[in-house]
Structures are given as C-alpha cells and as structure tokens.
C-alpha cells in the first residue's frame, strides 16, 4: 500500500498535475492538455467531480475498487481518499476534473444546500453512469466554469461560479434519479434482500443482544453506502429507510401482541427496544393507538 498524499488546497492539486491556478478556491482541469497523469492515492481537502471519458482501469475509493467506464462521474467530498495505487502513470489522459473548496461556498445558496447532494457520500461502485447527452450537459457546465475562470476575478465571479456548480449538481441529482429508475429490477432485488435481512434479524437473538437494526447495519449487509441505500429505498417506496425499518418492527410487534401471555414490556425487549415506552410511543405514532389499546 503506497503513501496517501494529502492535498489541502486547490493550488496543491494544480501543482501536482502541472496546471496553472487561476482561482485559489476552484479549478477545472482538462486532462487531455496533460502529457501524463501520475497515479497515487490522495486525501482531498476539497470537493472533486471527476468525469472520465476513457476506460482507464480500476480506481480505489475508500475501501472499494471498481472499473471506470467511459462517461462516469465520481464525486469526492473533503476528507475522502481516492486514486489508483499502482505507482504507474496514464499517458495522454482524457477526462475532466472540477475541484472546489468549501470556502468558495460560504454565504452562497449552494453552501446551504451541499448536504442535500447525498451522492458525495456514495461508494465508488455507485458512481453515476451517463448517456452521451447527459455527459454533454455536464461538460458544458465544466466549460462555462472554465471560461469564467479565464476572465479577471471580479465581484461577480464567486456567485456566477457557485451558481454554475449548483446547476451541475442539480443535473447530477436528476441523472441519479434516472439511474435509480433504469436499474429498477436491480433495486427491486435489493428491496427483497432488505426485507429478508430484517426477517432474519428478528428471527435471531440479535434484537436482544444488539438492539434495533440501524440503516447503517442494513446498508453494510447489502454492500451499499448508507446514503445510496437510503436514497434507493426512498425512490422505490416513498419512505425513508428508517421509516421502512420502523414499519417492519411495528408489524412484528402486532404479531407478538397476539400472544396474551406476553406483556407489552416483554414484546418491546424481544424486539430490541431499550425501554418499553419507546415501543409504545412509536406504536401510537404509526398505528394511532397504544399497544394495549391495539391488543384490546
């Protein structure tokens, strides 16, 4: 395992690949202008959106690796590690990178919305695969930002660049929605596996030893990032992953309340609730009556 290079600033990245810094907080890099691109894993102190235009082997991202297909977008948030760890270099590379520092977003509408773009926390194997038309839309945003960077910086620069990045991210949100739909059969398979996972969990003694299953637990078992899993469940069912787990738990509670030899407290502990009143509160919220009223 090679060393991980920490890049805190946009200028450090530009220096590493050999391009001029036009703005301290944002950069657009056209890889086709470089003779070569040295491989290595980097810990980024800023946001990166990589657009690959040629298949170029595996990229490691966090704990995962996957094949970069042509027209793939990968999103990296500050603090994440990405790159290829083989000490080689790509000659005549193709593709683009958009880099922007969180400081660019301070005081902008985009700064307030960044947490909504959950795809920055997806795993690499959940990258965005685009059609040619979608790729052109994204490329146009890159070119627009690049054109703005080539002008002299003035009082309008920041808001124009931030709004173009926001437009780009809104397009990406739309394309991810399309990807969820086009992968519907795959998603249905994940829903079935999710339901089986919950069934197995409540048939075991895990609720008593571990407690209620979390969204992170389910995502890990299904080999998905929690954010991607949550977005997928929401698109497929209209409910959040947390709500889906709660509804499953309430159905289990209803089944067990039919056994009149068990108290409500016993049912609550069996299902993994730390305190019986937590079950009562959730039951009332979902069903509209308390467990005792339901039983009666």
UniProtKB/TrEMBL annotation:
Entry keyword Transcription: yes
One of the record's GO molecular function terms: sequence-specific DNA binding
Positions of the HTH araC/xylS-type domain: 196-296
Gene3D superfamilies, sorted: Homeodomain-like
Chain segments annotated as transmembrane: none
Organism phylogeny: Bacteria, Pseudomonadati, Bacteroidota, Bacteroidia, Bacteroidales
Keywords carried by this UniProt record: DNA-binding, Transcription, Transcription regulation
Protein's name in the database: HTH araC/xylS-type domain-containing protein
Signal peptide: none
Pfam families: HTH_18
Organism annotation: Bacteroides oleiciplenus YIT 12058
